[in-house]
Amino acid sequence: MGIKILTVDDSRTIRLIVGRAFKSFDCEVMEAANGVEGLAVASRERPDVIILDVTMPVMDGTEMLSRLKSTADLKAIPVIMLTAEAGRENVLRIARMGVRDYLVKPFKEDQIVERVSRIVELKNRGGVTAKSKKRFDDPLKIVLVDDKTAIWDQFKAGVSDTPWQIDGLAQAQAALENIGQKVPDLVIVSTSLPDGAGFWLFQKLRSSVKTEKLPIFALSVKTALDDQARAQQVGFTGIITKPIDFTDLKLKISRVLGLDASYKYYEQKSGALVVNYPAAYNQSIANDMAAHLQEKVTEAVDAGLDKLVVDLTQLKSVDMPLIEQVLNVMKYAAELSLKSGVIGSDEVRQACTNFEETKEWLLASSLDDILKLM
Amino acid sequence: MIKDMEEMLKSAANEVFATMLNMSVTFEPPDQQLQDSQTHVAGAVGFTGKFNGVIYLYSNLDFARKMTCSMLGLTDDQIEGNEMINDVVGELTNMHAGHLKSRLSDRGHSCVITIPAVVCGRDFRIEPVSGAERYAVCVRANNTNFVLLEMLVKPE
């Protein structure tokens, strides 16, 4: 049986972020919008962990916590306090209230997962613990249900740089039988199958214990807004629109299945942490890279490294948003006393000299050369 | 006048935008204006105690939608109405307020913050009442869109 997590927050945004953070784990996230609702859900459901906001209307987090602690059969439930206030006074006050841990907003999803995994053992949907996540380059089985074989070929070509296996099936009934025999890692269902068969298949899969938590994406034409709204409403895990952006699709799959893709961007090499900017660099990749930055820089420091090299050799040009991303990486490295340098082609290095913000950068064409300069 | 208030606003924006929205920010003087013809969304959180004031974060609706997508990992067509956008803007304002409250409390200006309120509409402006101190910065995210971050403070 999965872990039960109760998030008590008046902000739906925070509740959605908490829910999303645990989506790939075998746990049930319950919600309450204030302390009164929170106490009612806690009494009824006996969650394993409560993530509790401080400032809420009706009953705030402090009062809910005090009532929890004075109720014999609820007082043992561990509470992680979420607060928007990081001041010394506030942190001391929270610590004195008997909470297990606290987290200051703003926070990243992996921080809340890490805090909860200190208290309970989180397992992903495949039964693997949170600490041994699947990698992006591990084999995956994906069932694609679409009556157009050209789409199967498009998917196979689009993920050909991964060991992922795409099994194309044209009919919903055949797909149901196939999935029932061996549950894949992910299912993608076209919403345009005849007679609403895609939605029928989704409902069938969700009503089976074996597949009730299986990630299922809807595949829809970009302009078919009604289909997308219906898919959203019935609870598909995500929506993929045609024409398909495979870079984005792979990131979505990676996020939903909790795949570790950080090795593509961060590598410890020749005594330095090398941050690789891929040729297909875009905002989604920037977000993915940023999500792992703190963890990877901390690991590098733990491993005794004292240099960070930003590798732009796969890029043909640089622009201001990219420069700002690199500056963020360097700023974080500097906070942990890592020296930074940048490698790139002649054109990229020349472009880097055109920005006021980059004039102090150490630049070279190769890793060996930059390490000598550092 | 509160020393370094504008620096505190910038520090809050840096942290909140980088952590919650994966956006890097730069700062400009607060002379950027939202166009009256556009729909605006403004989040507000009050401070009361040894320090009294209100912080506002406001942007046009288009950028509020982008922030919502970024914060919740959605595409634009997955946004479920204005309630979701308002909630995100309110929460972002709350996070800025929490950051400022911490800094103010550490300097002896202990205070509490209110729950956020959000106003959405066209052709309105946030203006200080007479006597209030005004601190403002224009926060440009990823070198494109901007929000105005404004703090109105009741003098001690």
Descriptors for this entry?
heterodimer; A: alpha/beta; flat; B: 156 residues; alpha+beta; 7 strands
Question: What's the topology here?
Answer:
The complex is a heterodimer of chains A (about 375) and B (about 160).
Chain A: E1 3-8, H1 12-21, E2 27-32, H2 35-45, E3 49-53, H3 61-69, E4 79-83, H4 88-96, E5 101-104, H5 109-117, E6 141-145, H6 149-158, E7 165-169, H7 172-181, E8 186-190, H8 197-206, E9 216-221, H9 225-234, E10 238-242, H10 246-256, E11 266-269, E12 272-276, H11 283-302, E13 307-311, H12 320-335, E14 339-343, H13 346-352, E15 363-364, H14 367-373
Parallel strand pairs in A: 1-2, 1-3, 3-4, 4-5, 6-7, 6-8, 8-9, 9-10, 12-13, 13-14, 14-15
Antiparallel strand pairs in A: 11-12
Helix pairs in contact in A: 1-5, 2-3, 7-8, 11-12
Chain B: H1 5-21, E1 25-28, E2 39-49, E3 53-60, H2 61-72, H3 81-106, E4 111-113, E5 117-122, E6 133-141, E7 146-153
Antiparallel strand pairs in B: 1-6, 2-3, 2-4, 2-5, 3-7, 6-7
